[in-house]
Amino acid sequence: MQQNNTVTEFILLGLTQDPMKKKMVFIIFFILYMGTVVGNLLIIVTIRFSRTLGTPMYYFLFYLSLADSCFSTSTAPRLIVDSLSAKKIITYNECMTQVFALHFFGCMEVFVLILMAVDRYVAICKPLRYPTIMNRQVCTIMIVLAWIGSFFHSIAEVVPALRLPFCGPNLIDHYCCDLQPLLKLACMDTYLINLEWVSNSGAICTGSFVILMISYIVILHSLRNYSAEGKKKALSTCTSHIIVVIIFFGPCIFTYTRPPTTYPMDKMVAVFYTIGTPFLNPLIYTLRNAEVKNAMRKLWRVKITSESRR
């Protein structure tokens, strides 16, 4: 599908050209990425093997951590390696693969956050019907639909990118391949394609954010009938979700709901939602969640006990 291209590779300019700052980028983002992988892996393993975390909320949290790990992996390793490379070259095929992965796992995270909001809405607003509505079969179907929806969203993003003609220059003023930087390099009028991308990614980001905020307003309003203890527990869970929604959707809306205009803060905004948010999510969901922390302690004790018996 590569059409009228004389460009077979791109050069990523990264976050900085300063040699000293490049070393700082390497150290900072290596730590952030390792923290993201380890933190999300801990959540995945804990939920997978803990008997106390079998509710739909943790079922969805499992997939959110999986999406976080993959979402960060789509950009962070290349940023880390490129920070020590003299020439940051990415081939055309690698670039398009990165666009696909970035939007696939990013969209998956959006859909899982919506499913988590649905779960909290049913649990708080319809508690008596919760076991019937949110049974394992229904949750599995919803996750499968989220994977399918993410795939079609990503296909809708990458197919127009594959049709863009690139005839030079091939310098991408970013640390990864994404839609807006690629539009600037295309040898054609990109107004309609940008409009298509905004109506796709922009609509998903903005629409999902509005839906999530409305759902949590309804949930918080419903808590007035709860006891003090029940209200405290529900508030703790919902607050964690709201924090994640705000820090993820804010930068996404800024990036994908505007014309293809470059701003100085674009790269830092992208860093925040592609690397920062996946790093923060495990901290938010473990530090504010006693059940997850207790389950981790139990699994750790079991591991130590089994090792000591050998």
Structure in words:
This protein is mostly helical and 310 residues long. The chain has a single domain, classed as Rhopdopsin 7-helix transmembrane proteins, CATH 1.20.1070.10. 75% of the residues lie in helices and 3% in strands. It has a 3-stranded mixed β-sheet with strand order 2-1-3. The termini are far apart. The mean pLDDT is 85. Putative odorant or sperm cell receptor. It holds the Pfam family 7tm_4. This is Olfactory receptor. Belongs to the G-protein coupled receptor 1 family. Keywords: Cell membrane, G-protein coupled receptor, Membrane, Olfaction, Receptor, Sensory transduction, Transducer, Transmembrane, Transmembrane helix.
Helices and strands in order:
Blueprint: E1 9-12, H1 19-49, H2 56-73, H3 76-82, E2 89-91, H4 92-125, H5 130-133, H6 136-162, E3 171-172, H7 179-185, H8 191-222, H9 228-256, H10 266-287, H11 290-309
Parallel strand pairs: 1-3
Antiparallel strand pairs: 1-2
Helix pairs in contact: 1-2, 1-3, 1-10, 1-11, 2-4, 2-10, 4-6, 4-8, 4-9, 6-8, 8-9, 9-10
Largest sheet: 3 strands, mixed
Q: How large a portion of the residues is in β-strands, by DSSP E?
A: under 5%
Arrangement of strands in the largest sheet:
2-1-3
Envelope shape: globular
Report how far apart the termini are: 58 Å
| CATH topology label | Rhopdopsin 7-helix transmembrane proteins
Number of strands: 3
Low-confidence stretches: none
Return the structural class: mainly alpha
Helix count from the secondary structure assignment:
11
SSE string, helix = H, strand = E? EHHHEHHHEHHHHH
Rg value: 21 Å
Corresponding CATH superfamily: Rhodopsin 7-helix transmembrane proteins
Count of separate structural domains: 1
Helix content: over 70%
CATH class: Mainly Alpha
Q: How confident overall, as mean pLDDT? A: 85
CATH architecture call:
Up-down Bundle
